[in-house]
């Protein structure tokens, strides 16, 4: 304490004190921090009913509201064609078609799709009656291990619908013109579907054949 009754404090000590205050406020449970919402973090799971059409059939489920559409399909409806690759929206293996649009089913909750129409790889064709895209993948060897293939095929079917609808992509030159069926367009549109086996060129050949072009 100096003669004036104040504690002597250096600039360095002042910075340490200020830093400690900020750190204290940032740590949950420490003085000055928000009280954690313990009730919410310990909340019991909540169930909800959901009904949607899957591959043409109405399916009703009662699910934990945190269930993804992918888990609802695989674990509850036992439609294991859709694959869980990353569970983070990064690989496309779980791609399904919902109300005409392709989505990654691992990134959406099942209860969000009340009344929707969901098409999985099982709904596109059967071994005796293949969808043209499935037949083209076989013809062009568009797979090796096959793990990504259901997602690739669902995505490819939706890509051709997007092209028909005139929806531009990142590589479309003229956003107001109908997109051209080029290799660049197909590769860009399929870029969300990763193939660890690297069957990309054969996949593009298969899609191009179904699209009726030599892209
Ligand atoms: S499992 Fe859904 S994107 Fe990979
Ligand atoms: S065929 Fe194996 S990951 Fe695509």
Description:
By secondary structure, this protein is of the alpha+beta class. The protein has three domains: 1-34; 46-124, Beta-grasp domain (Ubiquitin-like (UB roll), Roll); 127-215, DNA polymerase, domain 1 (Orthogonal Bundle). 35% of the residues lie in helices and 13% in strands. It has eight helices and five strands, in the order ααββαβββααααα. Strands 2-1-5-3-4 form a five-stranded mixed sheet, with helices on both faces. The N and C termini lie far apart (83 Å). The structure holds FE2/S2 (inorganic) cluster (FES) (2 copies). The site of one FE2/S2 (inorganic) cluster (FES) has 12 residues, from loops.
Helix-strand pattern: HHEEHEEEHHHHH
- Sheet with the most strands? 5 strands, mixed
Tally of extended strands? 5
Count of distinct structural domains = 3
Q: Spatial order of the strands in the main sheet?
A: 2-1-5-3-4
| Fraction in helix | 25-40%
Q: How many whole angstroms does the radius of gyration measure?
A: 26 Å
CATH topology-level fold name of the largest domain: DNA polymerase, domain 1
| Beta-strand fraction estimate | 5-15%
Name of the CATH class of the largest domain = Mainly Alpha
Report how far apart the termini are.
83 Å
Layout of strands and helices, then pairs:
Blueprint: H1 11-26, H2 38-41, E1 47-54, E2 57-64, H3 69-76, E3 95-98, E4 101-104, E5 117-119, H4 121-124, H5 132-139, H6 149-164, H7 183-189, H8 200-211
Parallel strand pairs: 1-5
Antiparallel strand pairs: 1-2, 3-4, 3-5
Helix pairs in contact: 5-8
Bound molecules: FE2/S2 (inorganic) cluster (2 copies).
């Amino acid at each position: 304490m100096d003669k004036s009754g104040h504690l002597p404090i250096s600039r360095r000590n002042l910075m340490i004190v200020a830093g400690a205050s900020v750190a204290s406020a940032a740590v949950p449970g420490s003085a000055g921090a928000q009280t954690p919402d313990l009730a919410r973090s310990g909340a019991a799971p909540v169930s909800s009913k959901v009904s949607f059409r899957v591959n043409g059939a109405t399916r009703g489920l009662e699910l934990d509201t945190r269930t993804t559409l992918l888990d609802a399909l695989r674990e509850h409806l036992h439609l294991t064609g859709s694959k869980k690759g990353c569970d983070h929206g990064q690989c496309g293996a779980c791609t399904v078609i919902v109300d005409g649009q392709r989505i990654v089913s691992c990134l959406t909750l099942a209860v969000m799709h009340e009344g929707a129409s969901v098409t999985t790889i099982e709904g596109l064709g059967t071994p005796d009656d293949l969808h043209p895209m499935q037949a083209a993948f076989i013809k062009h060897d568009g797979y090796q291990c096959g793990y990504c293939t259901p997602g690739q095929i669902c995505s490819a079917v939706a890509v051709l619908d997007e092209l028909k609808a005139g929806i531009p992509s990142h590589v479309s030159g003229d956003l107001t013109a109908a997109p051209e069926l080029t290799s660049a367009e197909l590769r860009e549109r399929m870029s969300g579907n990763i193939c660890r086996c690297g069957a990309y060129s054969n996949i593009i050949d298969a899609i191009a054949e179904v699209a009726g072009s030599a892209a």
